Amino acid sequence: MVVLLIFMEVFRRFFSPSFFNGFVVATGLFLSFDILVFHWIFKLHRITNGPEANVLEPIFVCFGLLLFWQGLRREIKQNSIKANGNNISS
């Protein structure tokens, strides 16, 4: 998670806001979808072989859904600000 947060900070600083929001949405979708489908439904593998996976995986799913929601919310807000700004200046 620390490495992910470092990458997110780098992307936020050096790339456009739309790229960053897309990265946040994609990361959240990957975290939640991978664990839900491959770990829980198909039972292909787990994060760890021990019982701590029963605690870590739901945390990652919640964190992934939070990132997904946050990225979408920020992109929608950014687009509505652009749309309102274009209507005011027209």
Unreliable stretches: none
Question: How would a crystallographer describe the biggest sheet?
Answer: none
Approximate shape: elongated
Number of DSSP helices?
A: 3
Average pLDDT, rounded to a whole number, is 89
The rounded Rg comes to 17 Å
Number of strands: 0
Secondary-structure-derived class: mainly alpha
Give the proportion of residues in helices: over 70%
Distance between the termini: 44 Å
Estimate what percentage of residues fall within beta strands. under 5%
Please describe the topology of this protein.
Blueprint: H1 2-14, H2 17-41, H3 53-89
Helix pairs in contact: 2-3
Give a verbal description of the structure:
The protein is mainly alpha-helical. Helix content is 83%, strand content 0%. It contains three helices and no strands. Helix 2 (17-41) packs antiparallel against helix 3. It is elongated. It starts with a helix and ends with a helix. The relative contact order is 0.15. The mean pLDDT is 89.
What would a concise description of this structure say?
The protein is mainly α and 90 residues long. The chain is built from 3 helices and no strands.
